[in-house]
Amino acid sequence: MTKIIDIINGSHKPFASFEIVPPLKGNDAEKLYASIEPLMEFNPPFVNITCHRDEIEYVDNGDGTFTRMTLAKRPSTLAITAAIMKRFPVEVVPHVICGGASKAKIESELLDLNFMGIDNVVALRGDAIVGQKYFTPEPDGFAHSNELVEMISNLNHGVYLDPNVKNGIATNFCVGVGAYPEKHFEAANLETDIAHLKAKVDAGANYIITQMFFDNQRFYDFVARCREAGITVPIIPGLKPMSTPRQLELLPRSFHIDLPQDLVEAIIQARTKDDAYQVGIEWCIAQSKDLLAHGVPAIHYYTMGRARNVKAIVSAVF
């Protein structure tokens, strides 16, 4: 398998990559394939697969007591990765998250991925569970993603959690990490957030993919500040087209981002939902063209399980 950093550094022209959301439990693989198939005509060098931690629910026993249950709402990362590898000729990059797992469980998952021949992962902390305001690690888990990156780097050198493992096979992972051009909402300021990002790079991250943004100047300023801080790895912008008027409220609330006033006004003035959908496409096309004019190596599109608008954007840009 080809490492993503080699794809980025070896590409003679910018390319598009995509992030896929696994279908909910109860759906078969065909729904997953339907979200990817329309994008294959662009020959993406890789697709990312999001990982969703198990959720906690309390079931009423009917006698005034409740039973705490841990529920998986989507197929496992391993299952999704294997299904895509079986169907499509594309590098699959699973997300590995700290949330909801012990260090030992994460190491086991990484070794399973390595056993499958996967050489690329994206290392993320993950979000807080539903009903929890801030992220809380497992008792024997990682609190920060730089710790996860360090574990992967150790595995790449044959160093396991269990000190009794001697001459363990060395993995060969290329590691991507996330970043926030408008700062992670838990960080005190952008300087602190960039320092945390540098810690991930220093721990062994090979490249960076950003959270979505809608103002390219925010991205350019962010990249400049990263370079000033000594971060030299490639930084790939992540984009998501706005698709509904309701996202004017949902996206800032969920992803802690600002929306340009011109975009807000265009969505508000759209006469129909279809018109608003088209505004989102046209805005993302303009963003993409401007980013390419500024020399980005690639653009990563968040599909959210829907390919139609992303396909229209990539067709107009690449």
Summarize the structure in words.
The protein has 318 residues and is an alpha/beta fold. 40% of the residues lie in helices and 18% in strands. The chain has helices spanning 4-10, 29-36, 77-87, 103-115, 145-156, 190-203, 216-228, 247-255, 261-269, 273-293, 308-317, and strands spanning 15-20, 46-49, 55-60, 66-71, 91-97, 120-124, 174-179, 207-212, 235-239, 298-302. The strands form 2 sheets. Strands 1-2-5-6-7-8-9-10 form an 8-stranded parallel beta barrel, surrounded by 7 helices. The protein has a two-stranded antiparallel sheet with strand order 3-4. Strand 3 (55-60) and strand 4 (66-71) form a beta hairpin. It starts with a helix and ends with a helix. The model has no long low-confidence stretch (mean pLDDT 90).
List the helices and strands and how they pair.
Elements: H1 4-10, E1 15-20, H2 29-36, E2 46-49, E3 55-60, E4 66-71, H3 77-87, E5 91-97, H4 103-115, E6 120-124, H5 145-156, E7 174-179, H6 190-203, E8 207-212, H7 216-228, E9 235-239, H8 247-255, H9 261-269, H10 273-293, E10 298-302, H11 308-317
Parallel strand pairs: 1-2, 1-10, 2-5, 5-6, 6-7, 7-8, 8-9, 9-10
Antiparallel strand pairs: 3-4
How much of the sequence lies in strands comes to 15-25%
Distance between the termini: 25 Å
Count the strands?
A: 10
In the predicted model, the low-confidence regions spanning at least 5 consecutive residues are none
Shape: globular
Report the radius of gyration as a whole number of Å: 20 Å
Task: State the helix count.
Answer: 11
Q: What is the N-to-C order of secondary-structure elements (H for helix, E for strand)?
A: HEHEEEHEHEHEHEHEHHHEH
- Please state the structural category: alpha/beta
Average of the residue pLDDT scores: 90
What share of the residues lie within helices? 25-40%
Trace the largest sheet across and list its strands.
Answer: 1-2-5-6-7-8-9-10
Largest sheet: 8 strands, parallel, barrel
